[in-house]
Write a structure and sequence with these properties.
By secondary structure, the protein is α/β, with parallel strands linked by helices. About 50% of the residues lie in helices and about 10% in strands.
């Protein structure tokens, strides 16, 4: 046992684990670390001898556990799923009642619900915490989304609030300038208690689904400028830089500008031009889309972003299809500068709709799982540290401050006005993309979502007639109270319908 016990422990020293451990030590907390491969842990400790807090490694799991002050707090950052379960199983014989296990991986929220229930029954406490921001966020300040019993959260809160990204409390702008050993002081932490059991990991999943949408929408803006307007990557980099000074100000817009200006060190060509157009994924966007379908929540823009990655993956098929399937053969004849402005507006409108879908999904989830989510607070902790951090999130925070029970972001006065102002350009871009054969699945699905949500009457009345015709699935009538259902005898359709 060390002379001075550690405030917290961490298991799993891949890049995220190493960076989070250094972040914790930078804030003056004493942290013990353990890794299955001892050599990797020893090298990590040797490379970081001078952290403000004590950073100590243990070759044996038992010694690691004994080094922690009571009640013990242990972060697990290993492969989600069976890897996490295996680490928990190895820890339990060494823990005391009341000790806290924190899963900081990309866990499925339903697994978190199960784990918390099982561990609580044995007298242990469990927190499932979303951690967003990638390697840099883990090192200098992530967005943290913890879920679990609130008393366990209170034990963890001083550490989580310290290491989280910080933003200006009034403007929501991230406070930058953190360096190794010198974290940013002051500001509002991008961490807040989300709710019981799997709430934290659920909100992190929705964050990732929104992230899929953001990334695909930016790619569609790039594709329009590249293939319709024939702009160079450097020219587009300047455009994205300009956009980053307005309502689209965000981490993803900023790095897009940087990527487009990057030169390939091997060929000297623009970097994006030598990257294979086949996207990878870890599955959390698919989880979001599947869950939306399971709960009957319309989230088409997030789903289209997932499908866009799928179709990118069939690269060989697309190359073969390109020689057979022909689109329109025409070139853009309009004003390029004016159309770039229209693409900007289309991107902003689609972004509003994508976030509206994500927040609708969380609203329904809280009913399903008996959570009480604070949507304004969720938007607040996404303002810094995470991948989707953006000035835009301050407007969402303000929207829920105006109306905590807001049914849909589209109904907020600020977003409603923004959509009214920009929707003509949005429609123009979607029309032009169809005319010239440029695929924009998220731009167009977001527009369909907007038009569907505002529609007084949708064509599903006909669909219900079809269902009743072939399967006697019944229907409701516009001249009768909701909930009363009817069936028409389609063999004798002139006879009065039957109330069921």
């Amino acid at each position: 046992m060390s002379e001075k016990q550690s405030d917290i422990g961490l298991i799993g020293l891949a890049v995220m684990g190493q960076n989070l451990a250094l972040n914790i030590a930078d804030h003056g907390f004493n942290i013990s670390v353990f890794n299955r491969t001892t050599e990797k842990m020893d090298k990590f400790i040797a490379n970081n001898p001078d952290t403000p807090g004590t950073l100590v490694g243990h070759a044996e799991l038992k010694d690691f556990v004994l080094s922690l002050s009571l009640p013990r707090k242990i972060i697990i950052l290993v492969q989600a799923g069976r890897g996490t379960d295996a680490v928990i199983d190895s820890l339990l014989p060494l823990l005391d009642q009341g000790d806290i296990i924190i899963d900081g991986g990309n866990a499925r929220w339903s697994d978190t619900i199960r784990r918390e229930e099982e561990l609580n029954a044995k007298g242990y406490r469990f927190i499932g915490s979303g951690v967003s921001g990638g390697e840099e966020g883990a090192r200098f300040g992530p967005s943290l989304m913890p879920g679990g019993h609130e008393d366990a959260w209170k034990e963890l809160e001083p550490i989580w609030s310290s290491i989280a990204a910080k933003v200006d409390a009034q403007t929501g702008k991230p406070l930058e300038g953190a360096k190794p050993g010198k974290p940013v002081d002051g500001g509002a932490p991008c961490s807040a208690y989300i709710g019981p059991n799997g709430a934290g990991h659920y909100v992190k999943m929705v964050h990732n689904g929104i992230e899929y949408g953001d990334m695909q929408m930016i790619c569609e803006a790039y594709d329009l400028m590249r293939n319709l307007l024939d702009l160079t990557p450097a020219e587009m980099g300047d455009i994205f830089n300009d956009w980053n000074n307005g309502v689209l100000d965000s981490f993803l817009i900023q790095i897009t500008a940087d990527i487009l200006k990057q030169t390939d060190p091997v060929t000297g060509k623009p970097f994006v031009d030598i990257v294979l157009d086949t996207a990878g994924q870890k599955g959390t966007g698919k989880w979001t889309s599947n869950n939306a379908i399971d709960m009957g929540v319309p989230a088409p823009t997030i789903a289209e972003a997932v499908f866009a990655r799928f179709i990118s993956a069939v690269n060989d098929e697309r190359r073969a299809a390109n020689t057979v399937l022909k689109g329109p053969e025409k070139s853009f004849q309009g004003d390029k500068t004016d159309f770039v402005d229209a693409i900007h507006d289309a991107l902003y409108c689609a972004k509003i709709c994508s976030y509206a879908q994500g927040f609708q999904l969380m609203r329904e989830a809280q009913k399903e799982y008996s959570w009480k989510l604070k949507f304004g607070e969720i938007a607040q902790i996404w303002r810094g540290g995470c991948i989707i951090r953006a000035a835009f999130l301050q407007k969402i925070t303000e929207a829920f401050a105006r109306d905590p029970n807001l049914a849909n972001l589209l109904l907020d006065p600020y977003f409603n006005e923004a959509l009214q102002r920009a929707q003509n350009n949005w429609r123009r871009v979607v029309g032009a993309a169809a005319e010239y054969g440029v695929p924009i699945p998220t731009f167009s699905s977001a527009l369909a979502y907007y038009d569907s949500y505002r529609a007084l009457r949708l064509p599903q009345n006909l669909l219900q007639g079809q269902r009743d015709f072939f399967g006697a699935h019944t229907y409701e009538r516009i001249d009768q109270p909701r909930g009363k259902i009817f069936h028409l005898d389609w063999l004798s359709p002139t006879r009065p319908q039957i109330e069921i």
